[in-house]
Specification:
3-stranded parallel β-sheet; alpha/beta; binds NADP nicotinamide-adenine-dinucleotide phosphate; single chain; 15% strand
Length: 302
């Protein structure tokens, strides 16, 4: 996507680190998406992002409402299917198949999590890869690995957009990612190692197989916490002046427990806030992926 730029003059209350909130980045991505949607509508195509919710989890229903509100603001259609908590795997696959074959639907997501008797990953694999706005279908992971165009995984793409927005140089610098999970660490490593001006980094990925991982994080120019272990990144793991991106979180009920200890702000040069860092950029990327999918149906970009 086009690099959007800005600068943050905020500072953390206790330290010297520059704060890197995600909201302005998300707004810039969404403004670009809204402009693309307007262009598509002028050519008779209304971009659409379809959602499927299974069951009655309040938090999941809330996330769907947020996406539908955002869709309305951007001038997207947002068809929705709500399946009961008792839905079978076959019924979930049928709902996906209907959206897959509907030419008016450009993007499609199944709200995570699904009830325990259902296999989310199996359902994900039945989504048309070109409509996979989460960018998590194995084919899209493969496209990312070999550098083919396609929907990018939203959180990694949001992190790249955040670094670009705040004009943090990435090319040629040392990025260390703590965590090699399939949704975050692994695709982010592939993305930031690509040969592009906003990537092109020397990327190292550490995990439980590297017990002495702090040896690597302490030399990182950009450290991304992607472990899902509350407070795992402490000030002594951070090189003074480094950029720290806190993406990993765990929830204790509704309470958000980030990977990055707040005291890291006293050592870092720039840091995402405890709340409102990477999250907003992830949601914006869903719509970015959907509008690109709609454009591809016009053969505008490939
Ligand atoms: N902010 C957002 O919008 C957003 C979006 C997606 C995900 N997330 C968050 O990002 C985090 C990662 O997601 P994921 O799906 O990639 O998770 P995951 O599959 O559970 O991966 C976690 C990774 O962290 C590593 N790890 C865990 N404990 C460790 C330790 N003590 N020392 C070193 N490495 C450790 C694991 O190492 P091993 O591989 O060796 O087990 C694994 O590679 C989660 O907290 C998730 O909630 C946030």
């Amino acid at each position: 996507m086009t690099t959007t730029r800005g600068s943050a003059e905020h500072h953390t209350p206790s330290g010297t680190a520059r704060l890197l909130p995600g909201a302005p980045v998300a707004e810039a991505v969404l403004a670009e998406t809204a402009a693309a949607a307007t262009g598509l509508r002028s050519r008779g195509i209304t971009p659409s992002l379809a959602t499927i919710l299974v069951g009655d989890d309040d938090a999941s229903a809330g996330y769907i409402s947020i996406k539908q509100r955002q869709a309305a603001e951007l001038g997207f259609d947002s068809p929705h299917v709500h399946l009961p908590a008792t839905a079978t795997q076959a019924e979930l696959h049928q709902a996906i198949a209907r959206f897959n074959t509907d030419p008016a639907v450009h993007g499609l997501l199944v709200q995570y999590p699904v009830p325990g008797h259902l296999d989310y990953d199996a359902a994900l694999q039945t989504i048309d890869p070109d409509k996979d706005v989460d960018g998590m279908h194995p084919l899209n992971m493969g496209r990312l690995a070999v550098g083919l165009p396609g929907p990018l995984p939203c959180t990694p793409a949001g992190i790249e957009a955040l670094l670009a927005y705040y004009e943090i140089p990435v090319a040629g610098r040392e990025v260390v990612i703590l965590g090699r999970g399939a949704t975050l660490g692994r695709p982010l490593a592939m993305l930031l190692a690509q040969k592009r001006p906003t990537a092109n980094a020397a990327v190292t990925v550490v995990h439980t197989g590297v017990p002495d991982w702090a040896r690597y994080t302490r030399r990182a120019d950009i450290l991304v916490a992607a472990a899902g272990v509350p407070g795992i990144v402490r000030p002594e793991h951070v090189k003074p002046g480094a950029v720290v991106i806190g993406a990993g979180v765990r929830y204790d009920g509704r309470r958000l427990l980030p990977d990055v200890d707040e005291a890291c702000a006293e050592v870092a040069g720039a840091i995402t806030p405890r709340v409102g860092g990477v999250g907003p950029t992830t949601v914006a990327m869903l719509f970015h992926n959907a509008v690109r999918a709609a454009e591809r149906t016009l053969s505008m970009i490939r």
